[in-house]
Protein 1
Amino acid sequence: MKKNVRNPEQTTATIDTSVRDSKVVTQPPQRKTVEPQEVPAQPQKSETLDRDFSVLGKNVNKKDAYEKVIGKTQFAGDMKRPNMLYGGVFRSKIPAGFIDHLDISKAAAIPGVACVLTYKDIPGLNQTGIIIKDEPILVENKIRRIGDAICLVAAETEELVEEALNAIEIEYDEIEAVLTIDRAAEADSPKIHGETNLHQSKHLFCGDVDAAFEQCDVIVEKTYSSGMKSHMFIEPDAGLAEYVNGILTIYVSTQNPHFDRGEVANMLAISHNKVNVIQAATGGGFGGKLDIGVQCHLGLLCYHTGRPIKMVRKREESTMVSSKRHPMTMHYKTGAKKDGTILAMKIHMTGDTGAYASYGPAVITRAVVHATGPYYVPNVDITAEFYYTNNPMSGAFRGFGVPQISIAHEGQMNALARELGMDPIDLRIKNAHRVGTILPTGQELTESVGFVETLEAAREKMNELFNDETYQPSAPNKKRGLGIGCMWYGIGNTGLPNPAGAFVEVLGDCSVNLLVGCADIGQGSTTVMAQICAEELGLNYEDINVTYAHTMVTPEGGATSASRQTFISGKATQNAAYMAKQTLMEVASDYLKVPAERLIFRERKIWDREDPDTKMTYPMLMMEMRRIGKLALGVGSYNPKTTYLSPKDMSGIPFEVYSYATAIVDLEVNVETYETEVKNVISVHDVGTAVNPQMVEAQIEGGVVMGIGFALFEDVILTRGRIKNLNFSDYIIPAAMDAPKIYPLIVESEGEAGPFGAKGVGEPALIPTIPACADAVENAVGIHFGNLPILYIDIAREMNRKR
Amino acid sequence: MRAFNFFSPETVEEALDLLSQHQDSIAVIAGGTDLIIDLNEGGKKPDYVLDISQLKELDYISESDGMLHIGANTTFATLEKNELISEYYPAIAKMADYMGSPQIRELGTVGGNVVSASVAGDSPTVFLAYDATVVLQSKRGTREMSIEEFNVNRGKFRCQIEDDELLIEVKIPQANSNFATAYRKFGKRKSLAIVVLATAMRIERDRDNRIKDARVTLGAVSLHPMRSPKIEKALIGKKLDMEELEPVLQLYTEEIDAAIASRPSVVYKREGIRGLAKGCMMDVLEQYGLV
């Protein structure tokens, strides 16, 4: 494991604030000529120092843990207000068509029904969407999927809401539903939006693939696919809206409070500061709570009734209308030399974006940029097309397309290793990203590339756990296999600005108010921000109180997505803390008569690094601040150093840093009942600096189990655009008994980017287990499965076909 | 959920009075693991709900008159922990262990599972193998019938229960050392999984360790669990030894093919059934101490 650390005091004292304010470079860099990279004899290691943090790297208790453990946390569904109404949504029951006739009069006449609203009641913009505003808040005429929102109801009780919804009369003019991308692509298919069903297409290329394939000794060509998946966050979408001092205040389970605020305000044609979105405790999201859920509907009902109103989606409604993971098909052609050097990849992928864009543009872009896997490939040609259909809306789901393409790039690596008779880890190390690697986008990796270390750590752990003698199936009717999968993941939005901010005030008693926009959906960002803030200021973790995701008081935090919050909100927090600290440093410098850059702030003390006896306590410093009338205030923001990508070949700098990971899966297949059991998983993640190692491990563990679900359990069953398995009883995710023994390992690679060198692990945690499961099944039973999930029925079918 | 009147009697007599009185629109609730879903989804809209969970007199497991009696109010958690069951009725113990999750086993009752008679339920397949009899009671009297006869749809019910009747108990012939029983199930995960495919068997051996009698049942391949006379016949007379039993596995596949040839799930079930059946055979041999 790579240990590297900079001296935090040095950092804070020498970096100028202007350097800390990142700038978006708007011009893509010149594309460099790419040649096969030379593999260094030894993994690169720069000068390493011992870590010397006082708060960072410590397993402090999560800020929200106590209340959750004793059951006192208030989720939106738990909230109540006097005089509160309940809201519900009348939704389409057909996947495609037009509203022929709608009659709400009977519903509106029911005593106890406060209002029934249609699109006509929207005073502002009847359009929503995170990237492309193509989804109506309430359908005007055209229906694009099962579950499209048509009317809203507010009533005194939940039962009356149900009664009113049942009293709404509708007649449809149904048209052909476009249910496959093949049909969507045809000229004569009905068009879901505008003139074409092609949602987006992308082309990333560098070098000359055709010429390169000529030089290859081995070419592997395969097709992979991945089905639709549902997030199945434990808490269904819920929220409560009310007017507080004339401000429309919405408490909601969300990953995206600042986006929500804008969408609600635009719908009501009021200014953004007249809407206050406060994130309620959120029971998971995984990307499914990035889009607008109940926010706009609550806002509109509250606006029209003036009364507090609550909406809690039922599980079926939540699963039906929240976004889903894009089903994707990926065709890969990979060429290599005899020694394993990869020379070329030609890739074509397609995806079903469903009825609305949601995060589709982010998914296609990220999938294309990551399509090679974490390997140097000098000649690349990647094309992608995503199509609109009348299926459920696809969107963001932990990994934005990278989990899907990891099946393909890792499937190819494992196939190549088999073809070449090479050890799959050696093959990966040979082609691995390193500092200095040039990506197909032209970006040069300059720091924080710990991929090789993850491979080596995984191999070491594997050798420790298993050897040829002990590695045997547990019963004669079982076959056992080890599989490997790797991934890389760019932190933050792809080739787009995505800033976040933070406010800091150090109070007279040395406690701190930290305000960040960042939504904590359980992953622990609040704790991470407090640790970063405490470390930067030289205070204790307990000194920091965090107010988060409260749009009237916290600055923009961007979405809790793209594994970006530790990196971006974390850096913003560090910058804000540093600004406050600058004032503190000036005052301490005058008081101690020591140049500011020589001062160390740590554990509530300040001292001269060259003369530790010249010192003062933090309370003394705050007293001095009061005496001379100064406030310790800080504002910070951070926007990762990226560029827009060229529309021609997608060159540019899509991400400032990348996380890397390797997973090894050990599983057994019962060849008589076709049951698969994952027994052990090693999952090694390069996270830069682990701000809170226990929380990193917890992310990895959760990701491993979700990865097993992706690979071996989960599949949305669609019939004519309708999801058949809306519940936990039939959408099967792994439960506690299915969880394997997990070995989460952390690699800390060296880099200047991010707060104290921290990157992100939220989505990476999920990804490598997926291709590793597929490889392990193949190694156990000797059959290649390119389509995931690999279910018992697939194994039964293929094993008996083989015989 | 629609409003309803709720009764929670403490004696069977009271319960039967209420059932008789409100039989046009009453639903019986024990653990509620099935009914609550129906009420929430609007599948059932009764005016009255009769809670029988307080009928302590129906919570028992006992052997008498050559039979094992299981009261309808016995939960799966009770079954799971009962020593008589784990010692002498291994297929019932296994069924209780496979069933749902710890929380569901604490609430779910044998009576509820038998009356729900779900295609994907655990108990019907097992009780059919055990040659179970159900005891039904109403104000009109008491009647008994074999579980095979009971598991025939009648109106809104997936069994023969009448609107004013309560299931009192399930009884099965008492175990003896010549009996061995087994149950194997495949669900989509290790817990909290309904039955995708299941099979159970009760074997009776003779003095030469040959199969004297066999009852074999298949679950989740038709509306109700079914017996397979074909497999039973093939088993009778066979020596209790894996090599001799193994050829019978092919008949399981044939039975599945015959039952659900056109279903997409046949792809799995025709193959997986042999694995489950072989597991049952191994359990049986183990119980006889023959492995």
Note: Residues 1-34, 41-50 of chain A have pLDDT under 50 and may be disordered.
Protein 2
Amino acid sequence: MQRAALLLSGLCAVLPAAYAQSGNAFNPAISLTLNGQYASYGYDPQGFALPGFQLGGEAHPKPEGLSADHTELTLSGNIDHRFFGQVSAALATHDDQTELELEEAFVETRGLPAGLGVTLGRFRSGVGYINQQHGHAWDFVDAPLPLLAFLGGGYYDDGVRLSWLAPTATMLELSVEALRGGRFPGSDDGGSAPGVYTASLKLGGDLGTSHSWQAGVSGLWASPERRGGHAHSHDEHDHDHGFGPAYFGGDSRLVILDLVWKWAPDGNAGSRGLVLQTEYFQRSEDGDIALQHGDHAHHGRYRGSQRGWYGQAVYRFAPRWRAGLRYDRLWSDNRGDAELLEEAGLKDGGSLWRASAMIDFATSEFARLRLQYTRDETQAKADDQWLLQYVMSLGAHGAHRF
Amino acid sequence: MRKLTIALACLLLLAALPAQAALRVFACEPEWAALTRELAGDRADIFTATTAQQDPHRIEARPSLIAQLRRADLLVCTGAELEAGWLPMLLRRANNGKVQPGTPGYFEAASAVELLERPARVDRADGDVHAAGNPHLHLDPRNIARVAEALSARLAELDPAQAPYYAERHADFQRRWQAAVQRWESRAAPLRGTPVIVAHRSWPYLQRWLGLEEVAALEPKPGVPPHSGHLAEVLALAEARRVPMALYAAYQDARPARWLAERSKVKAVELPYTVGGAGTADLFALFDLTVERLLEALR
């Protein structure tokens, strides 16, 4: 072992040190994010549903009570002079089972000519703004409702991304993705054709030294054949009436507009700063709903039109303290056989909104404690919710996106 | 339609012209922008990513920075993990192969100098420590001279047609710089052995150069904001050691140093820290003012 180390250090010593740099001190960089929370709800979060929306993926609230539900391990580094690679795996607990979820495993080119970039593998889709953030980078304990309703709590998938950055002083980035469609809002149908395509345009810049902004418009096209939602819960009436989960097959088109505005005096965000963030989602779906009832499958036409937005403001009022407000809103206008829609959980739910307030304290850049209050008007009964969370990361903590 | 095409082509050509004429440089901090200006004159088109009002540890990977790095031929940064919170993200998102680590377009000042305060152990319990050593290396003007030599060679490598021009400017800069360093050293002689308190450990290179002795830091750990319990300890120490001054950078919170100044004989001294701080225009003015403010506080 000692000899191997000697040999290695000898090798390193003879390597050309012409362009010495210390950016690869950790190769690969390893970071572990620990988070857990206490959540108190007035309803059973197992029965969480958003009337008018088929929920898939990770679209569920944080577990009730004390939980450490999501531990994330990330490894990243330059593979060679051409490629960068990153893996993120989450240890998550679902129904008493601890599962290892591979959230990201991608390689990325390091500067092709002409401002082009290619990403291959499993990655978070670049649609919208918050979808690309890891959960530990959120400013609130939970995801905004539209992320749950439209992207299954965060859409990542296997595929290819091509991006182009314009040679302009204002950032202009175009990217297109072709994805397997293995996850909500797609469905794993097999076959060789990608199930989801996306396109995004992102613009961004500064206004003086104190303000910076980024705006984007994205589209996502999915054509699932048999997309199952979470089993629909029947709080109001008899549980045992024999309907299984509903499946959607057809076309799903989603448009997202996003805007982020950050202010800090002289651009020095360490002591004071304000972040405004909003996204608007609009989706239309056209296809069939299939419901299993005993041995029979019920089919029916379904045309869905759904919208949602959230807006949030987070203010850093002291170096270690931040406070924030968020408002989420969803609407649906779905057409089809009334009974089928109701059984599939797609019957319009009227006014679905939620409002949250949070305050957090960071002992350092690596550790944060957060208290959040939410008034939730999405469920059968209005609910007051309290959440207390810690988010901590150890190891090489990488740079965050804007 | 054709007119539009011609107009567009002209616009594109015009936009491309300056890029042809000058080397596009992305400087992470104002001190390296100023040094590049000294060494490359008008042959470089320099963008400075941060100002003297900003903490170089805590910059966001803003869209404007991504756009600027996309167009750069040369990146000039401190390295030593000073930019670890933002530069790796910029490099990933800028889609620019010319400035990636390992290419001639990637220049780290830290690679040209010996770093101080290399920690014996790297543990986050010790605060935001840098495994490579303290990155605030530009505050010893002798380091500036070392970086200038390496940077001038890099400019010549990237733009060989202008190599004689860069060599001439470098020689001229070194002449003026050496003379200035001697002037500052003789003026600053009375400062030798002076105990100082610092806001953040930004000054070890300045301390070594001028012989200042760091007694305590207002931050309990690097990167952790001062709190009252720790400040009380520093106050006691300042009085016991008869410390004449507490140093803070233009971008740092002045309140802890002023708090100390109100309760003791310690003077709160704002130093420019980098070019642009306290109105300094270039590297010479940066050290002129730094030495003057230190001497003023000693009187």
Note: The first strand of chain A starts at residue 29 and ends at 40.
